[in-house]
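Run log, item B.
One chain of 224 residues. Sequence copied directly from the ordering sheet:
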Amino acid sequence: MTAAGDLGPARRAARRRAVQDFKRQAILEAAAGAFSDEGLDGATMRAIAERAGYAPATLYLHYDGKEQIYADLLGESLARLGRAVKAAAGGPADPRERARQALHAFFDHYQTHPEELELGLYLFRGARPRGLSRELDRKLNGRLIAALRPIAEALGRYGGLDQARANLETVDLVSHMVGCLILELTGRLKVLGHTAAALIERRISNSLDRLAPAPGPGATGSSE
């Protein structure tokens, strides 16, 4: 029996985890601001610590460096994207509508959260090839692939596509969406008199029309 006020080993461990989770979340929120303002190159562990209200040494109890913090931020972003796409792809019974909603979920997520698009593309300091470490890149690329998988599966079922073709169509459409989002974020689409939403809807509809399975025998209404 534990004495009054003694939480017991299990409760003490749970309390420590809660404190650690709180600190980790504060670090991530501070890091998001630092990366947004300074980019991955310009942000420092000291600057992140100051924003979080901790000593720099505290950050190193949770992370080895800013690349790991960036990876955690991006990993959580990709997880949220994946949940949104998966939920949309699991909704409608109609295969075409399922594919359409899965694609729109990708677009809607990044249109609603442009800072996550910038995070995912390392766009804080210009568009150029960037990475973290080989291991972190591998994990993050795996999360991106997993987030896109429901789209590829929906397109495959709708159009009767093999995996390679479904993946190709997915990457083609996602690339178009990302391009439109960047052009909208930079104000270029407004100058050109268009919106990303209208262009994406047009592209998705055209793609689904192109991928539509051929009607079976007797589906044309012929009286023969």
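Observations after the first pass:
- The chain has a mean pLDDT of 87.
- DSSP finds ten helices and no strands in the chain.
Flagged for discussion on Thursday.
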